[in-house]
């Protein structure tokens, strides 16, 4: 769970970005950041909209979409295209050390950490004359969640 200091820092970073781009900073946009920090996991635009609705926030879908776009532009959010139509987002500050396992049947996402993958991304970069900045790995598989995964019924 992100703490209040994180939210303030994110809001500050976002405000600076909006000022530079001459976009308006609004209550709604700040509320979106606050709720994202509360969620502290992957989400798509619809899931965030439903979450904010349930919390009683008066924020339109259009505002959520445009705010997610701006938060991605200023690198507060990472945008993932795991599979299917909708993009998933997560706070960039969560990212450095994890990769993703994605179930191709039910869409379940699991985060994992594996030091050797990180080391490989560094050595491969070096081998081809690059300096590694970060890596992002997605492993597509089928999971064994008996409650939600369709694949499981075939076992
Ligand atoms: Zn993640
Ligand atoms: Zn599954």
Structural write-up:
This protein is an alpha+beta fold and 155 residues long. It has two domains: 4-92, Arc Repressor Mutant, subunit A (Orthogonal Bundle); 96-154, Dna Ligase, domain 1, CATH 3.30.1490.190. The chain has five helices and five strands, in the order ααααββββαβ. The protein has helices at 4-21, 27-39, 45-54, 61-73, 115-127, and strands spanning 77-80, 88-91, 99-103, 109-112, 138-141. The strands form two sheets. It has a three-stranded mixed β-sheet, with no helix packed on it. Strands 1-2 form a two-stranded antiparallel ribbon. A hairpin with a 5-residue loop joins β3 and β4 (109-112). It starts with a helix and ends in a 14-residue tail after the last strand. The mean pLDDT is 87. It binds zinc ion (ZN) (2 copies). One zinc ion binds next to loops.
Question: What's the arrangement of secondary structure elements?
Answer:
Elements: H1 4-21, H2 27-39, H3 45-54, H4 61-73, E1 77-80, E2 88-91, E3 99-103, E4 109-112, H5 115-127, E5 138-141
Parallel strand pairs: 3-5
Antiparallel strand pairs: 1-2, 3-4
Helix pairs in contact: 1-2, 3-4
Bound molecules: zinc ion (2 copies).
